[in-house]
Design brief:
Length: 518
């Protein structure tokens, strides 16, 4: 062997060794970005992370149980505030006694986990949803984005996301959503009582949200905003089914030892009944939409969401329908509650409301439809919505799990532990936001008041960011803009907080006064 051949042999082996070491580091528990060996060695063990007392079979879930617990499971955000105050920025949990979790309040820790999540971010699936969908093969081929993991999730996401994340696709849905928002304004004017309040206004927002999503996704009006809508109508059944699904899922999360897997608990029965009812009605509408697609001769019209999905390559029609069902189901509660909180803060802050009205008046005449150009210029209105979501996001935060160990706040966290990001609590801390408990939309327009980018994440982050984000933003901006344009909003009752039903829900009636603007 010549010296040149020997050199090449050595180089090839060195490269091979380096590749092996690199792959080994990715698969082992010490592949920590920007961490030294000393950081890892000096990290304290997982068991030393502070938290509530863990007991057999229940873990720390006992703290939410009636009589023996110390937290109200309906006020999950209050429990998180208490834990942060007692234990600090990292808190150890044991959910139901069957898996370990860590609540993270420090945005630096939250960012670090997100930076480590890899090509296929792992968000622990909703096990009972996966189980239910396995029992209904006539409707579902896979569990959908809420359930899938790994490569299967990645392929599904790629196939469906263009119809929901491309701005151009979202703009195509603007006109039908505009018409629904106009109908909602007219309905609000008809429903006001002598106090200029709308009885059960939150229920009206549920109707608006379902109608708006159906008009966009199915190119069909369900009649949710009609005056003669019956309580036993399909639209109202879908709304109740959405509530029942969220309530059932919430109850199942707090079921000790996952009893629902072994016996049909009350929560499991409620969840299954709600899911069956919703799916049965939704599939009927989807079938009608598919028939319209087949019979349509207008090749120049814009394609609906379901058409885009059904004509996408590499996607089974059942998966397309699953995606549609998830969007309709999730959209009813989430968009309605987020809009509720935004209107509440505007009603409680008259200066911000008038500033938003002034911006709208300068850009849009009464009765004109909102165009994309106008919506792009509504900077202050968007800041109001954003500030409301900082104070009351629809969820407290999201969750992740890693396939390798990581060091956070000086503690070594083993692979497989579930990370629960506590963004709601973090966003209320003075160290991150000045006057953190106050509604100050201007903070989002001030370039010199930058906050940590992983504090405010109402739609999550990265590849598993909420796929319906752009739809939700457009839907809320449309209605809130039109409400401010038409009404001065007042609220003169007890302060509204939230309670937990898998998502955050206003804990008091929305007794807003809607006074006509001149």
């Amino acid at each position: 062997m010549t010296s040149l051949q020997a050199s090449r042999y050595i180089i090839r082996n060195v490269i091979s060794l380096e590749r092996s070491l690199y792959n080994f580091r990715l698969q082992t528990t010490i592949a920590f970005e920007q961490e030294t060996t000393e950081d890892v060695i000096n990290a304290k063990p997982f068991e030393e992370i502070p938290g509530d007392v863990k007991i057999p079979f229940l873990g720390t879930t006992w703290t939410y149980l009636p009589f023996i617990g110390k937290y109200n499971h309906k006020k999950l955000h209050e429990a998180s505030f208490k834990k942060y105050k007692i234990y600090g920025p990292i808190v150890r949990e044991s959910i139901g006694g069957f898996y370990d979790a860590v609540s993270l309040f420090d945005p630096k820790d939250i960012e670090k986990v997100f930076r480590h999540e890899g090509k296929f971010p792992k968000r622990p699936g909703i096990e009972f949803l996966a189980t239910y969908r396995e029992l209904r093969p006539r409707w579902y081929k896979s569990g959908g984005l809420s359930v899938l993991e790994g490569k299967e999730w990645g392929e599904f996401r790629v196939n469906v996301q263009q119809s929901l994340l491309r701005p151009k696709s979202i703009h195509n849905y603007l006109n039908p959503m505009n018409r629904v928002a106009d109908d909602m304004i007219n309905r609000m004017k008809r429903l006001r009582n002598d106090l200029m309040e709308i009885p059960e206004f939150l229920n009206e927002l549920y109707k608006w949200s379902l109608e708006s999503l159906a008009s966009m996704a199915l190119d069909k009006r369900l009649g949710c905003l009609e005056d003669d809508l019956k309580e036993d109508s399909e639209a109202m059944r879908m709304i109740r089914a959405a509530h029942g699904t969220f309530q059932g899922m919430n109850d199942l999360l707090f079921t000790p030892m996952r009893l629902w897997k072994y016996i049909p608990t009350k929560a499991w029965k409620r969840f299954v009944e709600a899911q069956d009812d919703f799916a049965e009605i939704a599939f009927k509408y989807v079938k009608e939409a598919m028939e319209r697609i087949e019979n349509s001769k207008d090749e120049d019209r814009e394609m609906t969401f379901i058409e885009n999905l059904l004509t996408t390559k590499n996607i089974d029609h059942r998966d397309a329908i699953t995606m549609l069902l998830d969007m309709l189901l999730a959209g009813v509660d989430t968009t309605s509650h987020t809009t509720s909180f935004a209107l509440y803060f505007l009603a409680k802050n008259s200066q911000a409301q008038e500033k938003a009205y002034s911006e709208i008046r300068n850009l849009l005449s009464r009765g004109q439809p909102l165009t994309q150009k106008v919506m792009n210029e509504l900077h202050y209105v968007k800041a109001c919505i954003k500030e409301s979501m900082r104070l009351f996001p629809i969820v407290q935060g999201t969750v992740r799990s890693l396939d390798h160990d990581i060091v956070l706040s000086g503690y070594r966290i083993p692979a497989g532990v579930v990370f629960m990001f506590q963004n709601l609590v973090a966003c209320r801390q003075e160290q991150y936001f000045y006057q953190a408990d106050k509604f100050i939309p201007e903070r989002w327009l001030e370039e010199d008041k930058q906050h940590h980018p992983f504090l405010f994440l109402p739609f999550g982050f990265g590849k598993r960011m909420c796929i319906g984000r752009r739809i939700a933003e457009q839907e809320m901006l449309l209605l809130i803009t039109k409400i401010i344009q038409n009404f001065n909003i007042e609220y003169n009752y007890e302060d509204i907080d939230c309670y937990y039903r898998l998502v955050n829900v206003p804990d008091k009636p929305l007794r807003f006064r809607f006074i006509d603007r001149q």
